[in-house]
Amino acid sequence: MYIVPLGAIEEQVLVAIGRGLEDEYGLSVRRLGVQDEPGYAFDAQRGQFSSAHVLRRLVTQVPPDAVSLLGITTKDLFIPMLSFVLGQAQLSGPAAVVSLARLRQEFYGLGTDPELVVERAVKEAVHEVGHTVGLTHCADTRCPMSLSNNVRHVDAKGAKLCASCVRIAEEKVKHLRPTVVPPGSAGMRNE
Ligand SMILES: [Zn+2]
Ligand SMILES: [Zn+2]
């Protein structure tokens, strides 16, 4: 698995995401060099960044030996039918992205809390990467694969996959072969 910072991202966030993914999926996590912020995905009317555009770009950058490539951005992401998304991924495709924008307390006018950002970022990374290995949303509200529409939901769940998701992920990962999927050919899964 690979992660890639899309712009400047705090080191502690990147380290924690890498560890979290290794713990949950049992695959080594490597980091690609820092890329530019996703200016190409900016939508001037919404003042936000299109997560589908970011995914389309990421898909073209998946290393040949990668099962998944997770981009991490500080920009606020959207899909056309929702006011925002905390992240997006391809279902059983290699690309995923998470946004830190709404994981920061400052977004809500509250005091900065770096540890809370790290915690939330790990949960969302495990969630989006879960989709890339074929996991769907989980009914267990403590499981990171449960759906989170806002940070209250993120805070309510844990960072450890439930027993059922672990079983499914193990089975799926066993059969995964690193593949580069051409842009637009894999289904997108929102949030
Ligand atoms: Zn689960
Ligand atoms: Zn999801």
Structure, described:
By secondary structure, this protein is α/β, with parallel strands linked by helices. The chain has one domain: Collagenase (Catalytic Domain) (3-Layer(aba) Sandwich), CATH 3.40.390. Helix content is 32%, strand content 16%. The chain is built from 5 helices and 9 strands, in the order βαβββαββββαααβ. It has helices at 11-25, 51-59, 114-132, 151-156, 163-175; strands spanning 2-6, 30-31, 42-43, 48-50, 69-73, 77-78, 87-90, 95-99, 188-190. The protein has a 6-stranded mixed sheet, with helices on both faces. A 3-stranded mixed sheet has the order 3-4-6. Helix 1 packs across helix 3. It is globular. The protein starts with a strand and ends with a strand. 43% of the residues are buried. The model has no long low-confidence stretch (mean pLDDT 93). Bound molecules: zinc ion (2 copies). One zinc ion is lined by residues 127, 131, 137, 147, 189, 191.
